[in-house]
Amino acid sequence: MSLKVKEAAALIGVSIRTLHHYNEIGLLMPETVNAAGHRLYSDRELERLQQILFFRELGFSLEEIKNILDRPDFDRYRALVVHRDLLLQKKRRLEEIIETVDRTIQFAAGGMPMNAHEMFEGFTGGNFTKQKKKYTAGGYEHTLAIKADGTAWGWGNFGEGSGGAVAAPVQLLSDVKMVAGASGHYHSFAVRSDGTVWGWGSNSHGQLGSGGKDREYVEKPIPVAGIDAVEAVSAGVFHALALRTDRSVWSWGQNWYGQLGDGTTAQRSEPAMVSGMTDVLEVAAGFFHSMALKADGTVWRWGGFGDSTPAFPILNESLAPVRLDALAHIAFIAAGGSHGVALQDDGSVWTWGYNNEGQLGDGTVMNGSSPEPRKVPGLTNVAAIAAGGAFTLALRTDGTVWSWGANSFGELGDGTNERRSVPAPIGKLADVVHIAAGTKHAMAMTKDGRFWVWGSNDHGQLGERDVEARNRPHEPYRA
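-> structure tokens emitted (479 positions)
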């Protein structure tokens, strides 16, 4: 089928002038021009035009679209899959805004209370960067991803030793709410659409919250006992945190160093509420420490820093939440293995805890731990943060990713294996919208939906079978 420009414009619902402009800039050329001077568009051009309109719907500029479509490796099927995922995210944003409108109508009519945070939930929830905990997470030797269709996928070692490692992604759970997925040491969690939490992997210390540790390893996801209406979840080595929609924090698992925040060191295999943690917006779990960000911009911590080995003993223990007085106006938090990271609303980054690999980013390296936050110098306009075992990532508003800290396995993505105590950009990455970190590996997603990984791959956590590690970002999957 061949259509004249007027026919094509009428069919698609765009103006003739628009098609002329696409032709002038080389974005969409007609298949041929007939003897009468009419430009003719075949099915191939119509398919390209459909792709252009999909990209435009997602906010891409014409220049960006042309660069993507003209790539030698452009895959239409893959692009359509990505389009669907991104459009589902837009749909969820509209649903969240509509829900906020409905609640506001009830509030205006005097039918229900509404606080300041709830007034803007629909708007903040729609920002892709602000939803950084929803999509991917890294554990010790495995990776977890949640797709926009609500399915959870994982690869790497989930806790059965090297024999249990899988390099190719496997589907783990469906009907997952796009709120949170978390990976711990050898276990993972996801929040389903009904607000329940489901976990799988190692259960050696009751960290799956099933009410006991009758099974050391759980292959299929099981529900966490006694908790619902959950919005987010985060996992440490042997403990977990959950944030409920009422803004309360719940914890379970091993409690050697007070990481459950209940004032004791007693292990607990079922969730219980952390006293004093109300009006919380975000939770984060490190190896043996925990963090919470309150709506007033304050940050609280409990547990201890270190990995419980002679080289890195647990320091700065607290059995109950304590406020970090140096921090205010904080927008987001991240927990590294033995360090903490906070993003202030002015785009600056603050760090504290162990600094044995330069993960605090202040230009120094020391073997001990400092519980006092310090500002990372020379780093501005940051939109998102992520923390690995002993390294840190920052995503700036210009779409660049900056890294610092440990680099023995290529965690910094800079093409070397040398640690660095100051932030520097990862050269290969641009137009990034999402970052995540595991213990020794990291992930990024770019604006066009491409997924990049780097760091350790000793158990397939990069999604490859025969590569031990990569010190530069690599694209393992094309779908």
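DSSP finds seven helices and 31 strands in the chain.
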